[in-house]
Specification:
- With 165 residues, this protein is α+β, with helices and mostly antiparallel strands.
- The protein has helices spanning 3-28, 30-33, 42-48, 51-59; strands at 77-81, 87-90, 94-95, 103-104, 112-117, 124-129, 135-140, 150-153, 158-162.
- The strands form two sheets. It has a six-stranded antiparallel beta sheet. The chain has a three-stranded antiparallel beta sheet with strand order 2-1-9, with no helix packed on it.
- The chain starts with a helix and ends with a strand.
């Protein structure tokens, strides 16, 4: 490897790492936390969430595909934010996207917020809980009718509540 290739490669790695680090700081930023109804300190979030759920909800991590038990959840009910228990998705909007993450074609009214996510050198729509700011996943334009949207959601960011009989 020559010096020029090494320098260009190092610069590219630094840029990508910078995008990823700056994106991960958004929810942990105390100034942003003031915009949500439910706020907690990092220690309080860690006390109520598993380490994996904390990484997803509070640090915008992504769970491995095909690992969520919610992929096999087909009963009638709601999928709620694992951080604050806000109803986020109705079971009627869940579908199998084949991506390895729970997918929905729409969210419940007044349940989510979105941000532009420019990490990984692409532009995506990040979706989060509108009440606590917990990171859910991303929204893509390749979903089924009637919306044409695919809410690709980390199962660790949700819990399931069975509908009353």
């Amino acid at each position: 490897m020559d010096r020029r290739s090494f320098l260009l490669g190092s610069a590219a790695i630094a840029i990508v790492a910078g995008f990823m680090i700056s994106r991960r700081l958004t929810i942990a930023d105390p100034a942003l936390a003031d915009n949500f109804e439910v706020t907690k300190t990092e220690a309080q979030w860690r006390a109520i969430l598993s380490p994996a759920a904390f990484a997803v909800l509070r640090q915008e991590d992504t769970e491995r595909p095909w690992t969520s038990p919610l992929l096999k959840e087909h009963r009638k009910g709601t999928f709620n934010c694992a951080g604050c228990d806000l109803d986020a998705y109705a079971s009627e909007t869940k579908y199998d996207s084949g991506t390895g993450w729970p997918s929905f074609w729409d969210a419940l009214p007044n349940s989510i917020g979105t941000n532009v996510d420019t990490s990984l050198l692409m532009t995506r729509t990040e979706v989060h809980c509108r009440r606590c700011g917990g990171h859910f996943g991303h929204i893509f334009d390749d979903g089924p009718p009637p919306t044409g949207k695919r809410h690709c959601i980390n199962g660790l960011s949700l819990t399931f509540r069975l509908a009353a009989a």
